[in-house]
UniProtKB/TrEMBL annotation:
Its cofactor is FAD. Homodimer. This is D-2-hydroxyglutarate dehydrogenase. Belongs to the FAD-binding oxidoreductase/transferase type 4 family. Pfam families: FAD-oxidase_C (PF02913), FAD_binding_4 (PF01565). One of its GO terms (molecular function) is FAD binding. Keywords: FAD, Flavoprotein, Metal-binding, Oxidoreductase, Zinc. It comes from the Bacteria. Its EC number is 1.1.99.39. Coiled coil: none annotated. It catalyses: (R)-2-hydroxyglutarate + A = 2-oxoglutarate + AH2. InterPro entries: FAD-bd_oxidored_4_C, FAD-bd_PCMH, FAD-bd_PCMH-like_sf, FAD-bd_PCMH_sub1, FAD-bd_PCMH_sub2, FAD-linked_Oxase-like_C, FAD-oxidored/transferase_4, Oxid_FAD_bind_N. The keyword Oxidoreductase applies.
Amino acid sequence: MIDPSLIESLKSLVEPGKVLTDASSLEAYGKDWTKQFPPAPSAIVFPKTIEEVQAIVRWANAHQVALVPSGGRTGLSAAAVAANGEVVVSFDYMNRILDFNEFDRTVLCQAGVVTEQLQNFAEEKGLYYPVDFASAGSSQIGGNIGTNAGGIKVIRYGMTRNWVAGLKVVTGAGEILELNKDLVKNATGYDLRQLFIGAEGTLGFVVEASMRLERTPKNLTAMVLGTPDLEAIMPVLHAFQGRIDLTAFEFFSDKALAKVLARGDVPPAFETDCPYYALLEFEASSEAVTEAALELFEYCMEQGWVLDGVMSQSEQQLQNLWKLREYISETISHWTPYKNDISVTIAKVPAFLKEIDAIVGEQYPDFEIVWFGHIGDGNLHLNILKPDAMPKEEFFAKCATVNKWVFETVQKYNGSISAEHGVGMTKRDYLGYSRSAEEIAVMKAIKAVFDPKGIMNPGKIFA
């Protein structure tokens, strides 16, 4: 913990009441959705302007105080956890949409703008912000940028990175940089904007972002298809992609579905029990597209790749089908899951998934394993559920012992140990499975340039 006199000097940098040190605030703002590391911040500070953020960073440099950024705190890698007496910088009060350019289709946002807030603003303008995920109602744009958030529409629209037109950042040295200035074409050397996207606040803080928008998709339609095994899912994807532009292609296991259906507030898609399910979405912009989807469904049934299926016929049914997938994370959170967020190229998914499934099945015979993910872009979520009677510490320790085998398999397939959740503290010690020693050395050198005193979210990504 830092000296109380420093807390008093911090209070002079922001409005009255915008530095909190009470126990409940420290607990709430010192953590994210991970539960492996107990929060232990010294204080929470709430800047309202870029100048205040800059003053906080300069104060931290002067007193060698570590800072941790805090957005919606929906992360799953402990990148926003303050576990070692850091000062948490919350962007809750920097939450305004500042400008809209209808010709360039860009929106200027402060870092604390909630993802759903941007989505709703785009809808009011007759446009669309396509980066979407279950935590859209609480995650913030600054956090999305810091983790290069992906979600359910990546197969069509890509990651957050694809939608950032420009950034304004405060570096770890307290300098303000304006990066790219919304240009579509800008061939003037290094694109520093891209360095800050996915950097988890280790180089500096995003304070403003100009986000691109897209046309609104027409008549979105979803299908849920039950498959006999994992191997069948990829030929289904290949068949549909050959004729239809998909906006999403997700998968989940029967165990994931059972957890969601047990809630009692979501109807099943159909009665047939299947080991695995694929959820795909597309724009039914014409009768011809709908007919093609039905023909593809029949073809997949004939090939034995699909056992049963349903296509949404209304907006309500579309939402209900999506709930089968989107409610999984929230539902299984009751069991304090140990999560692995891994990826490989799409062609390698079936063999990779089969190999990983065999490892966890052998090593965790008494644990319940739940699979789901964005299989259309090669991203798989492995969730190991904690038995109710087992202490959290014992459970996480048991899970960690198998990481070596899981990540060695990821490395064998040239995959990533973190597809979209970032590295933070949970994957920090395993970074070498996805990045070479030379790459890590270059990354550390880059951090030293932007954050020479090492105050920006230390201990995240690498030690």
